């Protein structure tokens, strides 16, 4: 193999280019670089840590399950099937082909955070030193595969190496949380892995699978869900189950952020229509907005921090969804509105001392228009870190620029990785630390903040914010 | 008291960090730093200058009346009541406690313009040299209190020291403007203090207080307001009264920017329904959009510059509004649309030589999409300086970036402080001058503008723009 | 004439100000500066090249026909008529007056791309060395006029000098494309000038001129357009005519991007209502959204790349439109939505290997929220270069910042000048090359991309993207 371009992430990457600003940023970054990771929201499967099986191979670790990675290859003409999506376990030959497709497509990721994360992971976890390409694909595959076979590359060893202090998973309300219980009971394991209550499907009475879902909810909770009041009681019971297993938050992701009370028995009536299969789309939305308000009420009682991730058209490409299911890269953001949508919730509970609401958006227009003004007044409201498509260098900079004027730093959530890609957790948190260091360094360089305060702030963003916001 | 971190605003603060760009910016800023202040829109009470009483104390000067300051403390868990809001005059002990809350919360303002303004005011007006904190709170309180007792810290002395050339207040159409008249007649006073016509409440026929408002309007104007045509005549009379007292503008702040003529007697009909208390919310909005169009017609005749500040959900948190009233920090912005909303107005009067319309927004999405294209075609339309939540370093930079491509500099309003915090006026104008110098310096450094033109432009932004736009 | 400020565009203009970043940018720019121009969408009249007549004079070359130039003077109080708009050919005296108005208004263009383009054109094509002003107006006029009389300033000579490799025009479906045919047949001419199929008016059945338009379509195509199916057939015939004359794309500019199938004979019914003059505005929009879907279906068959330019309120100022017609500067952008609007089209054809759709917007909110996510998943979707009001330095930087995180560089269209100002073509492409070099240099300086990859990327943006996207 002729000489290949190296893969060598620079120690100063993502820090500001101006030499004087970079010097300040280096110092700030140095104060947080090695701090443990708090990950209060994400999608890692707890059984990965419970079972501690070696990861299979580079393709099924980095490519096939990660829609962040597959979508841009799909846009470039590579069918999802060729990337292993929807195909079940891959043979080694198949995995090598998937990996080769990634390496051959390396150029399409230029300038994207996917490229940034993968480079960090390959170089820093697996010691890869050449740039991926068709030519280097096999050698890199072999090197990673060889590492994955070693004990120190098993999930638990990596968890420790990554210095993860807290890791939250995302779980169905009917989940028995047995893996969480088993991990907690395991004397050989000291990591903190928390479940998160994610009840979306139980709030969408116009979904075809809703009747089955609430039926199962009734069974699991032991509370009849034949009426709306039964549903409320069953939800409360499942939340208690989650709290008992360490949960600190409940996560909500509907198409809009609407909250609106139903009155005069309308909730009972629409709930019954949902069970009868006669509820309309509009009525389903009305019931959901009422139920979300009820979820906030429960949070004021059981203290689960409420994270709200609205505004996505899921499964935008029907044929892809039919063939491959959900979460394969064809979800597309929508316009979003918080000011009026959340007003009923905030009028009721916005100053409640026990409520914590974290608001996420894929629509940047709400950054300065709604998020910062809301979080800059309501003690219950925090601005969620940039999410999904916006969890990226340029977007994170725009976010800090847009919200800091009105809400400062203290009203933000701390970094949220929201990932199902276990090995990307350190790279994602590291990216955030670098960018926050750079943003603060710019304030210092423009004499808008003293450096001692900037140091305190960057540490607070890594430690204080997530601990306060998620009540850890 | 052990050694405390200093408070020492840097002479180069807010200028670009790059050394070569900063050098240019310093020269540009030097050409405007000491120019007098023109403040054509704000909320200072004219009686402050008429009576010239000493300001009471630091808390009631800087904290209690200023929702810019109180809202972020409220978000951090400090009740508004603890900040003196809604409590009437504070005793010295209470004022010291309020001041201590501000100083103890100093860190939550990091990165915000509130922090920037307060630092400038404390250091440059009151010679404070230590950073506010729980430890330094009393010493700073004492130092400011001691200054406030001196004659040179009375309002008129500060007005001169601040080099305010023009100061506009904001006034109700029924106001007799006696303070303005008394100031103008005072031989010991030479400052220019102008009233501004702010008729919002008289245009909102669905508001509960509307019937009382138009009744009072009838009494004050001496024109019966029992019919729509009477209302028009009464408004014209009050505008004349304002023009006679030096007013140069009329200010309009409704939830949207809609303008739409009513035809065939609908205005008379809805007006009557408003008086009868039977008008619906939708009808009230329709009548208001018709009335705003009428206001534009009046401006083409009496020459009052029309400033439009739409798109805010006022009193978002009902319980706070019930207890503390309006303007206490819980107003939250909304999405905004100008293109279609203003079309009826602009089709009628958009090229009228006497009309000046200044458009303000809290929704940045209209910067490049609507504001710059409108002001880049219509000779009557000017782009208002960033307002309220957007009157802040990062937002001002985004604003210049977003509008200059299409509208250049000449279609902007000059800086508007819009403040009720008298002592913040110099800091706010200074911030704007620094940021405009920095933006222009960047253009020079990138060889997009010659430096002689940049100097001419930055001076024009401080002098020429407000004089032209507000016809001073 | 006393000494005048020089006009001397700097070799580094628009490159980043930071010296180290600028060095990188210079190298990147050096690799594309002299590459030929591919212009796959614009509005130059092909007869200009066919006839190769000398351009008349500076005013009628640079001012009168170009609404980019006239609108900001109009906003500054110069009537369009005084700029020659709507007045037919100008005498030399009149032209000199128009030119003087431009030169006297030079300051209003500070910071705008119009100023940037004009400076480049004056200096680099016409060797002007003094800054335009009232004083220099006549001398500059004379200098340009003298050049325009020379053979090397005729259109064909400039086409060669500009190194235009491909130039697309924009044409009515009923156009016989005779100028294109004549140019292609001319043995003395080797340039590539392609027509573009622009069928908007034939899709708007509620427009007053629609019946006439489809009637003419029937005549020209030889296919009866008395029924919807006839309309489809006639459209297909005209597209074939365009393909035979070298067309590579069809351009679509409606008020929204909606695509929605009509079913059960509704298309036939609404089409008939359109012919009968009884169609409503809403029905007209419904039929147009169905027809646009049909246009996509045709593109999957004949391979014409589909460009979509929606979201403008045309002729915003009725009185101006009545007097001067369309395209005189009073078009104003609107809010835009792609996610749901395009879903029916993309569900049907979004993964079709022959479909290429390029999406343009004047509403920046869709950059990161919709455009990048759509183009980052659908292989048929490309992100169009910033258009019209956004084809400007600051907007182009915001655009790259907003889309690159999610869509990288490969999903973008390459630069589109979209101009009717022939002499501005090199300046516009050069501006884009400088800005892309600067953006990439920033990535290199922040260690986010290796320089060899940045070079490959900037060349690809100039050559590879337009060739792939427009199938050249």
Description:
The structure is a homotrimer of 472-residue chains. Chain A has 472 residues and is an alpha/beta fold. The first copy, chain A, has two domains: 55-152, uronate isomerase, domain 2, chain A; 156-469, Metal-dependent hydrolases (TIM Barrel, Alpha-Beta Barrel). The first copy, chain A, is built from 19 helices and nine strands. The first copy, chain A, has a four-stranded parallel beta sheet with strand order 4-5-8-9. A three-stranded parallel beta sheet of chain A has the order 1-2-3. In chain A, strands 6-7 form a two-stranded antiparallel sheet. In chain A, helix 16 (366-375) links the parallel strand 8 and strand 9 (381-383). In chain A, helix 1 crosses helix 18 and helix 16 packs across helix 17 (393-407). Chain A is globular and about 75 Å long. The model of chain A has no long low-confidence stretch (mean pLDDT 97). Chains in contact: A-B, A-C, B-C. The interface between A and B is large, with 47 and 50 residues. Chains A, B, C: Belongs to the metallo-dependent hydrolases superfamily. Uronate isomerase family. Chains A, B, C: This is Uronate isomerase. Chains A, B, C: Pathway: Carbohydrate metabolism; pentose and glucuronate interconversion. Chains A, B, C: One of its GO terms (molecular function) is glucuronate isomerase activity. Chains A, B, C: Keywords: Isomerase.
């Amino acid at each position: 193999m002729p000489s290949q371009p190296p893969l060598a992430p620079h120690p100063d990457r993502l820090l500001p280019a101006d030499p004087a600003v970079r010097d300040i940023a280096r110092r700030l970054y140095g104060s947080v670089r090695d701090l443990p990771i708090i990950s209060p929201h994400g999608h890692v499967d707890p059984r990965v840590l419970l079972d501690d099986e070696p990861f299979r191979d580079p393709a099924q670790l980095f490519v096939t399950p990660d829609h962040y990675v597959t979508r841009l290859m799909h846009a470039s003409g590579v069918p999802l099937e060729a990337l292993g999506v929807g195909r079940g376990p891959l043979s080694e030959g198949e995995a090598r082909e998937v990996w080769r497709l990634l390496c051959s497509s390396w150029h399409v990721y230029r300038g994207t955070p996917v490229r940034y994360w993968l480079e960090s992971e390959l170089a820093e976890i697996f010691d890869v030193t050449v740039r991926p390409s068709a030519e280097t694909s096999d050698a890199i595959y072999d090197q990673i595969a060889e590492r994955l076979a070693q004990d120190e590359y098993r999930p638990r060893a990596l968890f420790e190496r990554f210095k993860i202090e807290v890791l939250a998973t995302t779980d169905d309300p009917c989940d028995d949380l047995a893996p969480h219980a088993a991990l907690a009971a395991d004397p050989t394991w000291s990591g903190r892995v928390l479940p998160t209550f994610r009840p979306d499907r139980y709030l969408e009475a116009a979904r075809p699978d809703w009747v089955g879902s609430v039926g199962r909810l009734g069974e699991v909770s032991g509370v009849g869900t034949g009426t709306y009041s039964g549903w409320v009681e069953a939800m409360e019971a499942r939340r208690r189950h989650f709290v008992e297993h360490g949960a600190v938050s409940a996560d909500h992701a509907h198409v809009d952020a609407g909250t609106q009370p139903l009155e005069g028995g309308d909730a009972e009536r629409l709930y019954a229509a949902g069970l009868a299969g006669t509820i309309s789309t509009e009525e389903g939305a009305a019931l959901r907005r009422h139920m979300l308000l009820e979820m906030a009420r429960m949070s004021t009682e059981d203290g689960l921090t409420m994270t709200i991730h609205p505004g996505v058209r899921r499964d935008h490409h029907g044929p892809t969804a039919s063939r491959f299911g959900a979460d394969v890269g064809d979800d597309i953001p929508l316009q979003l509105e918080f000011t009026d949508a959340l007003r009923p919730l905030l009028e009721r509970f916005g100053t409640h001392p026990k409520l914590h609401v974290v608001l996420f958006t894929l629509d940047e227009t709400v950054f300065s228009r709604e998020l910062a003004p809301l979080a800059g007044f309501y003690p219950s409201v925090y601005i969620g870190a940039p999410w999904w498509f916006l969890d990226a260098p340029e977007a994170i900079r725009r976010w800090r620029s847009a919200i800091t004027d009105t809400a400062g730093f203290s009203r933000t959530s701390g970094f949220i990785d929201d990932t199902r890609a276990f090995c990307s957790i350190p790279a994602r948190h590291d990216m955030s630390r670098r960018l926050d260091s750079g943003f603060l360094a710019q304030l210092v360089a423009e004499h808008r903040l003293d450096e001692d305060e900037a140091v305190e702030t960057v540490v607070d963003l890594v430690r204080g914010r997530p601990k306060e916001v998620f009540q850890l």
